[in-house]
């Protein structure tokens, strides 16, 4: 039998040594690529976990943070120092009586420790007897003032601090006497 007469299956089984090396190299590159790609992704069921270490117990207790101190009157303090307390008193007055008038604010501020002779308040009614859309009240503390305003025109309650006026008070315009 000559080479031509051999079955075709036998022809395909025989390879040259160069063809074998090329095939092995190609198979090796495919394997390396598969390994590299598998390292880039985690299995779908893997869940990353974090570990936390507990602090080592200490022999001395650590101080715990306490709640912030409630606003309080700062005797001899400035308007800025006393504004949080002024606001607290006035907001409590409004919470107790949503229709509070000037006298309600003045009485609450006096009860809270502010000096009545340092206060001013506007009228609760207009010059024609209608309810005022807002009232203003103040406490003078040295050369600074705490000023509050309450009513529809103010959008509820507002407050601010200011330097005293050249006239010596805190509020511009006519105020009513605090004679009670």
What does it look like?
The chain is α+β, with helices and mostly antiparallel strands. It contains four helices and four strands; from the N terminus they run ααααββββ. The chain has a four-stranded antiparallel β-sheet with strand order 1-2-3-4, with helices on one face. α3 (79-96) packs across α4. The longest helix is centred in the N-terminal third of the chain and has 23 residues, at 17-39.
Unreliably modeled segments: 5-19, 21-54
Task: Please tally the β strands and state the result.
Answer: 4
Query: Which structural class is indicated by helix and strand composition?
Result: alpha+beta
**What is the assembly state of the chains in this entry?**
single chain
What topology, given as strand order, has the largest sheet? 1-2-3-4
Query: Distance between the terminal alpha carbons, to the nearest Å?
Result: 138 Å
**Average pLDDT figure:** 78
Largest sheet, in brief, is: 4 strands, antiparallel
Order of helices and strands: HHHHEEEE
Principal-axes shape call:
globular
What percent strand?
Answer: 15-25%
Rg estimate, integer Å: 43 Å
The helicity comes to 25-40%
Count helical runs.
Answer: 4
Please give a handful of descriptors for the protein shown.
single chain; 180 residues; alpha+beta; 15% strand
Write a brief caption for the model:
The chain has 180 residues and is an alpha+beta fold. The chain has four helices and four strands.
Give me the secondary-structure topology.
Blueprint: H1 8-13, H2 17-39, H3 79-96, H4 102-111, E1 119-121, E2 134-141, E3 144-151, E4 156-163
Antiparallel strand pairs: 1-2, 2-3, 3-4
Helix pairs in contact: 3-4
């Amino acid at each position: 039998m000559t080479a031509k007469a051999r079955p075709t299956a036998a022809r395909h089984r025989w390879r040259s040594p160069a063809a074998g090396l090329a095939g092995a190299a190609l198979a090796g590159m495919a394997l390396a690529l598969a390994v590299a790609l598998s390292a880039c992704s985690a299995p779908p069921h893997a869940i990353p976990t974090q570990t936390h270490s507990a602090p080592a117990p200490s022999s001395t207790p650590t101080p715990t943070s306490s709640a912030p101190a409630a606003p309080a009157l700062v005797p001899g303090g400035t308007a800025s120092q006393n504004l949080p307390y002024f606001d607290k008193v006035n907001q409590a007055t409004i919470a107790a009586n949503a229709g509070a008038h000037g006298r309600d604010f003045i009485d609450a501020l006096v009860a809270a420790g502010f000096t009545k002779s340092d206060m001013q308040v506007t009228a609760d009614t207009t010059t024609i007897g209608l309810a005022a859309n807002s009232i203003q009240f103040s406490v003078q503390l040295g050369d600074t003032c705490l000023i509050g305003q309450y009513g529809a025109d103010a959008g509820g309650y507002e407050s601010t601090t200011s330097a005293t006026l050249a006239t010596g008070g805190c509020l511009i315009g006519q105020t009513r006497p605090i004679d009670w």
